[in-house]
Amino acid sequence: MRYTVPMMQTYGATLQNFFTNTPVCCPSRATLHTGRYAHHWFVPRDDACMYMDVANQSFAQASMGVVMQGHGYTTGCFGKTVNLELGTPYCNKTTASALPGWNSSFALCNELSYIDNVWNVNGTIQNTMAYMTSVIGNESLRFVESSLQAGRPFFAYIGVHAPHLRSTPAPWYKDEFPHLTAPRTENFNFRGFTHHYLVRNQPPLSDKTVAAIDSLYRHRQRSLLSVDDIMVEVIKLLEHYDQLDTTYVIWTSDHGYQLGQFRLPMEKFQPYEHVIRVPFFIRGPGIVQNASLSFMASMVDVLPTIVELARGVEGGATADPSSSMDGHSFAGALVRGSSSFREKHLVEYWSVLSSDLLTDMGNHPSDSLENHPSDRFENFSPSNRLLDMENNTFVGVRLLNNTHNYLYVEYYANRHEQLYEHPVECELFDLKLDPWQMWNLCGVPEAQEGGPLNTVLRELRDHLHLQVKCSGQQLCGL
Known about the structure:
This protein is an alpha+beta fold. It has helices at about 5-10, 25-35, 55-60, 65-70, 130-150, 195-200, 205-240, 275, 300-310, 330-335, 355-360, 365-370, 455-465; strands spanning about 15-20, 75-80, 105-110, 115-120, 125-130, 155-160, 250, 280-285, 290-300, 345-350, 395-400, 405-410, 425-430. The strands form three sheets. It has a five-stranded mixed β-sheet. Helix 5 packs parallel to helix 7.
């Protein structure tokens, strides 16, 4: 991102160690929107949003739009919220209503195409045939400018779909980066034979698949240029109305991505660094500038942080709703430029795809890739390659402080239960010694009773099992 990243780095703070709690779209966004872990919204139903019960009133009333309205803000929501889909209540022409908490909303109802989209526009269903990211940007800018013209405090959530699959670039950017290739990290095409079942059974990446990974990477980078354009125009508006120095701007992502790491050619669904570590930038009043902050924070902490930054608005509510959230505010650490906040981070995931579906994806390109030529990666098909399966359901804890740097994960066979009593496999990585997470220590002699790693492993396991069902700030500790 040619503009956004250097601008946010120079005029704001960069969090070096920011993580998503659940490495897939809907659960991660559910956490972002409510400040509550995904396990708070989990339901064992295949018709839910990746097992998230986001259509109920409890979720709606806990969401950031309602919270920010309570603090005196005019609110706008644009693009991808949680994964709304055609046929669900908010995206059905006969049942559609305005999204709770948003004074203005332009919410995406079909995300698999970057052109020809359906939207919930303040409770009515509308279609567009223009490029999706530009549509989101234009609607967002209208809201921002009208709020600035009216002189009212506003909160805008701009949820772009790019660079998610199918990662279609705008026509005017389709030829950018012609020679760009995906990063060849140390664990690229590496056989993780000590890892859990899905990873250790990956076949080597063929030359054809590697070429397809590079193609996908180029498409992702091209699609982000239109996201960059939105940021350029937002900053221009704030400058034009002399409000840049009074406005907080936050930029982050719901999850990372794999592009050949451990022989996995695409998608997320894993607990490793390239998937759970995501960028986080913030600029605004009191935020230290040109600062790279080392403290750990995660997606569950974002809404409590926004609330603390927003509470000074006159005429807003005086009660602090963040105490019912699972996350904790790191606003104080941002203002002080602190090096400490939390040191343990919860990771949780319920497998959203079956092995049968993923095997079939190679035989039915329309299931995984756009049929339209402009959306197709060159010769790409993940045929007969597992990207997810039921026993890829996991909970884990990421530990990072001045002396330790670990990831501990437990895998479970049944994604519909939340018992967490009998893991089928475990992983332990010492990222100080093994930053690419290539060697699982969970079964080595040093991790057994009496071994030098056993104390760390037991501490992580005990903390994990206190957090996997926690609710509220008091129980969901730092």
